[in-house]
Every structure is written in C-alpha cells, then in structure tokens.
Design brief:
The protein is α+β, with helices and mostly antiparallel strands. The protein contains one helix and five strands. It has a domain of 41 residues: Ribosomal Protein L9, domain 1, CATH 3.40.5.
Amino acid sequence: MLPSRTLPPLNNEGEVGNGLLFFLMKITCTRNVMASGQALEAGQVYDVTNADGELLIRMGKAVEAAAPAKPKAKRKTKAED
C-alpha cells in the first residue's frame, strides 16, 4: 500500500503553511550550483533564502551580492537672470 499524500497543515488564518517567514538574500554565484531545486549559473545574481545563501557562501560557491549603488542627486544651480 502506498502512503497517502497529505496537505500541509493550516495555520490560524486558514492558510496553508506553518507561518514561518522566509527571508531572502542576494548572492552572486561563483560556480554553477543547485539551490532549492533550482539551477543557478555562475556570474548571475539571485535571491535565495538566508539558509541557502549562507550555505553556498560557506561552501565557496557564492558571495553576497553588492548592494546597488544609489545614483547621486544632481546639484541644483541658481538660475542667472
């Protein structure tokens, strides 16, 4: 007899799941790897869970992505009449 598949439990709000939050981090892959069933290519930037990101960084297969630089605000000059 095959085991029956069950649905994940409902949380207090009646939604599927256990109510845990997943936080994402940006990484840049240094090698082709798999994370959470997804193929990640070297040189690309990806959003992955903190757990996956920290593991890949410890293994030396990824580095934390640099935050995008904010564009500098243009300086307003006084109009000469």
